[in-house]
Design a protein that fits this description.
3-stranded antiparallel β-sheet; 3 strands; 74% helix
Length: 527
C-alpha cells in the first residue's frame, strides 16, 4: 500500500511486466490522432486540479475552438473527464490521477525537452495575461504599475471578453489553479511568472478574504525571486506581504516589509512601485495615529502616481487623504479630496474603485452632519459591493450606514444593520472592523439608556483596538466607556461584567445619551 501512495510508482505497481493499467492506457493513447496525443501529454505537464480549454490552447499554441475539439476527443476516449459544465460557466476538465501520471510519462518520452518547456511557458504566460487583464477590469487602475504588461497571447485576444465577462468569477474558478501554478513556477525557477501571477490575483485574495492563499503565494514567489536574483520581483512580493500585514492589522510588521520594498524599488528606479509602498506606509502611520507622517507618505505616493499617469491609484489615495483629514478634524480639507476621488474613480470605469471612493465621501458627509446624503452614499456602496461579492466592502458599508442610522435616531434600524456587519467581521476575522462595529453598537445601547450593555461593548472595542495597535480608536472607545460608566454611577470603571447581550435587551433605566453627545466623544481630538 505504501508504494500505491507514491505517485511515482503507482503505475508500476498496477502494471506488472508489459500488462496491467499502463498497457490499457497505451492502447488508447496509440489510437489518438497525433495532435490529440500531443494535447494529452502536454496537458499532463500542468500541476493544476482542473483547467479550461484555453489552457489546452496555450500548451498546443492553437486557437481555443480547436483546443476544445481536441479536448472533446480526449473526453470521448476517457483520457480526460469533465469537471464542471454548469450552464453559463466555462467548462472545466480534469485528469484522473493515473491518467495524468501516464500523460506526464508520455511527455517525458515523446516530447523534446525544449517543447515541454515552451508549452509550460505558454501556459504560465496565458494565466498571467488573463489575471492581469482581470485585475485591470476589477480595479480600473493602471496595472501593472512600474513594469510593462504581459503581451496578449494570440489565442486569447478574441475569447478574452467572454472569459472575463465577470472578472471576479474568473478568479474564483481559477483559485486552485493559481496557487498550483505559482508553486510550480517558483519551484522551476520561473520567478517572474510566480510573482506577476501573485500580484495580479491580489484583488481576488482581498475581496474574498483568501489570506492563506495570499501569504503562501507571496512567500513562494519571494523565495523564488531571491534565488534567481529578480529584484523587481523581490520588491513586489515584499510590498504584497506588507499589504497583507496591513489587511491583518499587523502594522509594525507591515512597516518593515514596505520599508524593505521601498529601498529596493528606489534602487531599481520604479517610481510607480515606490508609490504603492509609500501608500502602504501612509496606512501604517495613520493606524498608529501619526497623521503628519501619514500625509507625508501620501504626498510622496501621490506624486509617483501622478507621474505614472495612474488615475485609479491616484483616486484611491485622494480618498485615503480625505480620511486622514477627517481623523485630524479638518473637515474643510476632507470634502474636496473625497469629491475629487469619486470623480477620478468614475473615470476608470471600475465598480470596485468607485465603491471605495464613494465610501470615503460617505464618511465625510456623515462627519459633516449631512445624514441624508451620507445614508444615500452608504446605500450606494452597499449595492456596489454586494454586486461584486465584496464581503469586506459590504461590512464597511453596513458599519457606516449603521452609524448614520443611530445618528438619525433610527435605533432599531441601526441595530439590525450593525448586527449584519458584526456577523461579516466575525466571518472575516477582522479585529479592527469588529471593534468599530462594537463601538457603534455601544452607541445604540447608550442612546437607548442601556448603559451596562453599552459599557461592555465599549470594553470589547477598546480591547480589540489595542490588539491591533489602533491607538486613536482605542482612545476613542476609552472616552466612550468612561462617559457611560460615569453616567451609570461607576466612577471607578468597574461596572457589572456581562456578555453584552443583544441590542435593546432589558436593563434598569439610566439617563440616555443623545446622538450628538456621542458624536462629540467619537470625533473629539486627542487631549
Amino acid at each position: 500500500m505504501a508504494r500505491l501512495r507514491d505517485h511515482r510508482s503507482r503505475l508500476d505497481v498496477l502494471s506488472p511486466g508489459e500488462g496491467g493499467v499502463r498497457a490499457g492506457f497505451r492502447l488508447t493513447y496509440r489510437d489518438l490522432a497525433p495532435e490529440a496525443a500531443r494535447m494529452y501529454r502536454r496537458l499532463g505537464l500542468l500541476r493544476t486540479a482542473d483547467f479550461a480549454a484555453w489552457a489546452g490552447a496555450a500548451v498546443l499554441d492553437t486557437d481555443v475552438w480547436h483546443a476544445e475539439e481536441l479536448i472533446d476527443h480526449l473526453v470521448d476516449a476517457q483520457l480526460l473527464e469533465v469537471a464542471d459544465a454548469e450552464p453559463g460557466r466555462v467548462t472545466r476538465y480534469r485528469f484522473q490521477d493515473l491518467l495524468r501520471l501516464f500523460a506526464r510519462e508520455r511527455a517525458e518520452s515523446d516530447e523534446p525537452e525544449g517543447e515541454t518547456d515552451a508549452a509550460l511557458d505558454r501556459a504560465f504566460a496565458a494565466w498571467v495575461w488573463l489575471a492581469e487583464e482581470a485585475h485591470r477590469r476589477i480595479d480600473g487602475r493602471e496595472f501593472p504599475v512600474g513594469r510593462d504588461p504581459a503581451p496578449a497571447p494570440h489565442f486569447l485576444v478574441e475569447p478574452a471578453d467572454e472569459l472575463l465577462a465577470a472578472p471576479m468569477d474568473w478568479f474564483e474558478s481559477e483559485r486552485t489553479a493559481v496557487a498550483d501554478l505559482v508553486g510550480h513556477a517558483a519551484e522551476t525557477g520561473r520567478a517572474r511568472y510566480a510573482w506577476t501571477l501573485t500580484e495580479s490575483t491580489v484583488p481576488h485574495f482581498e475581496t474574498k478574504n483568501y489570506l492563506e492563499d495570499w501569504q503562501r503565494c507571496a512567500e513562494l514567489a519571494l523565495a523564488s525571486a531571491r534565488r534567481t536574483g529578480d529584484q523587481p520581483g523581490e520588491a513586489t512580493m515584499l510590498r504584497l506581504l506588507g499589504s497583507l500585514a496591513i489587511y491583518q492589522r499587523r502594522y509594525e510588521q507591515a512597516e518593515g516589509w514596505n520599508m524593505a520594498a521601498l529601498r529596493l524599488l528606489r534602487n531599481t528606479g520604479d517610481v510607480g512601485g515606490a508609490a504603492l509602498a509609500q501608500r502602504n506606509l501612509a496606512m501604517c502611520a495613520r493606524f498608529q495615529g501619526d497623521w503628519e507622517r501619514a500625509l507625508e507618505f501620501c504626498e510622496a505616493a501621490l506624486a509617483g502616481f501622478h507621474a505614472s499617469g495612474d488615475i485609479g491609484n491616484e483616486a484611491h489615495l485622494l480618498g485615503f487623504q480625505a480620511q486622514i483629514e477627517l481623523d485630524r478634524g479638518n473637515m474643510g480639507g476632507a470634502l474636496p479630496l473625497a469629491e475629487r476621488a469619486v470623480a477620478l474613480s468614475r473615470r476608470t470605469g471600475s465598480v470596485r474603485a468607485e465603491a471605495q471612493s464613494v465610501y470615503r465621501l460617505a464618511e465625510v458627509r456623515l462627519r459633516a452632519g449631512d445624514l441624508g446624503e451620507a445614508a444615500e452614499a452608504f446605500d450606494a456602496v452597499l449595492r456596489l459591493t454586494r454586486g461584486e461579492g465584496d464581503r469586506v466592502g459590504e461590512a464597511h458599508a453596513l458599519r457606516g450606514l449603521g452609524q448614520t442610522q443611530w445618528s438619525q435616531g433610527l435605533l432599531s434600524a441601526a441595530g439590525g444593520t450593525l448586527q449584519q456587519a458584526l456577523e461579516i467581521t466575525e466571518e472575516l476575522a477582522d479585529r479592527f472592523l469588529y471593534a468599530r462595529v462594537e463601538t457603534d453598537l455601544g452607541c445604540v445601547e447608550a442612546i437607548g439608556g442601556r448603559l451596562t450593555q453599552a459599557a461592555e461593548r465599549f470594553r470589547r472595542a477598546r480591547a480589540a483596538f489595542g490588539e491591533v495597535g489602533a491607538q486613536p480608536w482605542r482612545a476613542q472607545a476609552a472616552r466612550l466607556l468612561a462617559a457611560v460608566q460615569s453616567a451609570a454611577g461607576e466612577p471607578g470603571g468597574g461596572g457589572r461584567p456581562g456578555a453584552g447581550g443583544a441590542v435593546g435587551s432589558a436593563e434598569p433605566p439610566h439617563r440616555s445619551f443623545t446622538a450628538a453627545e456621542l458624536t462629540v466623544l467619537l470625533t473629539r481630538p486627542e487631549d
